[in-house]
Amino acid sequence: MQIFRTRDPDFQERWTRLCARGSDEDEAPVREAAARIVDDVRKRGDAALLEYTARYDGFAPSSAADLALGPADFARAFHGLPAAARKALKLAADRVAAFHRRESDALVPSRRDAIGATLGQESRPLARVGLYVPGGTARYPSTVLHTAVPAKVAGVAEVVACSPAAKPGPDGQGGQVDAWTLAACHVAGVSRLFRMGGAQAVAALAYGTATVPAVDKICGPGNAYVAAAKRLVYGKVDIDMIAGPSEILVVADGAAAPQEVAADLLAQAEHDVRAVSVLVTSSERLARQALAEVDRQLAVLPRQEIASRSIHERGAVVVARNVAEAVRLADEFAPEHLALLLRDAPRWVKRLSRAGAVFCGTSTPEAVGDYLAGPSHVLPTAGTARFASPLSVATFRRRMSVLAFTPKALAEVAPSLDALAMAEGLEGHARAVRVRLALAAERAGAPRPRKTLAREVAAAGAAPRRASPKVAAKAPARQATSRVAAKAPARKPARKAAGSRR
Ligand SMILES: NC(=O)c1ccc[n+]([C@@H]2O[C@H](COP(=O)([O-])OP(=O)(O)OC[C@H]3O[C@@H](n4cnc5c(N)ncnc54)[C@H](O)[C@@H]3O)[C@@H](O)[C@H]2O)c1
Ligand SMILES: N[C@H](CO)Cc1c[nH]c[nH+]1
Ligand SMILES: [Zn+2]
């Protein structure tokens, strides 16, 4: 694990390199591999999906339909678990649901303004979403809960999930998905789970295949291949964010316990060889103690191989001049998880604006957020916390603006609208308003000079309205106007037409 100090002459260079984790340069080979896979599944559908599933997950079902598991499988798995396991899943699901139900929709309420325009927003759930549940080197039933529960709270009608099956065991049998993951699908109300993973799963959900339905949005975390594929399909579908290899940045002062610092760093390092764990501390002594403690704990960690590569290839300890500088660097790094092992940790939160989630103080280990604190553990990685937010109910809903003008309101804004449209050279837009004003005037039978009305209708580029015999009998002047309009030459200068109504 590298160690450097903000006083070092090459600090900026090393810090910039550390901050660039997961960047385009860092991930070029992964991106190219993901692009080939996505393209192939888009073109060849199920056939390509089955080939990649066999290659990467060792699962070769006889038909693509066998990739899918459904509610009966989920219920069987749930009821087959011991009571303590069912209780843990339910507790986590309940806490996630309780937190996300507290989210507010914060819409602009519909209101009629001074001119008579009623303006507002409405929000609706997405119809069908696809959740990526990782499963390459670890199982993630918690991710089922931290994605599907907010989706259900949001009101999504159809929640489908995908997760790679475990690699075949010594018996050569593939296709197994652990009971906890299936049970979590039962608890969270997932409709179907497809046993597929990686870039091929993302492509199948984005473009649809004969077996896998195309979704409106793909959400959920995954390794670098999954993250790269989500970037590639964005636009065809929406995505929640880039939630790639896990990260933690711990800010600690001299009072922090090195054992806790090391444990938090390793808890993320064990996710993936590409996970990033960083300590920024104001204490040289703590830096040294934490390094030693990481080595001690690594030696007895079951996922030592993965965590050790992550720590040695991507981990770092940075010694800052003081806590304020450490906190400033943490914010610049924009980590997925930011742990504040500081005296008076909550006080520092107001200095932060760029982290996926902030964990305050020694009794709030990051792991509590991973499982059952409440806020979804799906968080932006690779510095994208600069602009992206945690997965939430809002992730699964979309807003639409709703506008309703009265004729009077339209007439009031028409001159300015006309001016703007003509400035943009988009006369069709201006005409779409002028025609309404002209027809409204005609309907109202406003006592207007014949020529003015003729000019208005002609300038709007519209055909004359055919007056009903009743109206025609009552309003000979308007009928005459329409006849004139039908014959009128192409158009008068628009501004003049608009101005004539002022
Ligand atoms: N940011 C978050 O919110 C969050 C939450 C949970 C987990 N995670 C991350 O999710 C990831 C889980 O990773 P994982 O690998 O265990 O499971 P995964 O399901 O994300 O990836 C496994 C799949 O990757 C593909 N793959 C692997 N090697 C490949 C190769 N060489 N070429 C092409 N495709 C390949 C295969 O299709 C395989 O099925 C970790 O990085 C973890 O840190 C992030
Ligand atoms: N730390 C992960 C997010 O980066 C979430 C998780 C799930 N299970 C354990 N951890
Ligand atoms: Zn974790």
TrEMBL record:
Pfam families: Histidinol_dh. Residues 489-502 have a biased composition (Basic residues). NAD(+) binds at residues 132, 200, 223. It catalyses: L-histidinol + 2 NAD(+) + H2O = L-histidine + 2 NADH + 3 H(+). Residues 444-502 are annotated as: Disordered. Coiled coil: none annotated. Keywords: Amino-acid biosynthesis, Histidine biosynthesis, Metal-binding, NAD, Oxidoreductase, Zinc. The active site is at 336 (proton acceptor), 337 (proton acceptor). Its cofactor is Zn(2+). Zn(2+) binds at residues 268, 271, 370, 429. It is an enzyme of class 1 (oxidoreductase). Pathway: Amino-acid biosynthesis; L-histidine biosynthesis; L-histidine from 5-phospho-alpha-D-ribose 1-diphosphate: step 9/9. Residues 455-466 have a biased composition (Low complexity). Substrate binds at residues 246, 268, 271, 337, 370, 424, 429. Binds 1 zinc ion per subunit. Its EC number is 1.1.1.23. PANTHER family: HISTIDINE BIOSYNTHESIS TRIFUNCTIONAL PROTEIN, HISTIDINOL DEHYDROGENASE HDH. Belongs to the histidinol dehydrogenase family. HAMAP family: HisD. Catalyzes the sequential NAD-dependent oxidations of L-histidinol to L-histidinaldehyde and then to L-histidine. This is Histidinol dehydrogenase. The lineage of its organism: Bacteria, Pseudomonadati, Myxococcota, Myxococcia, Myxococcales.
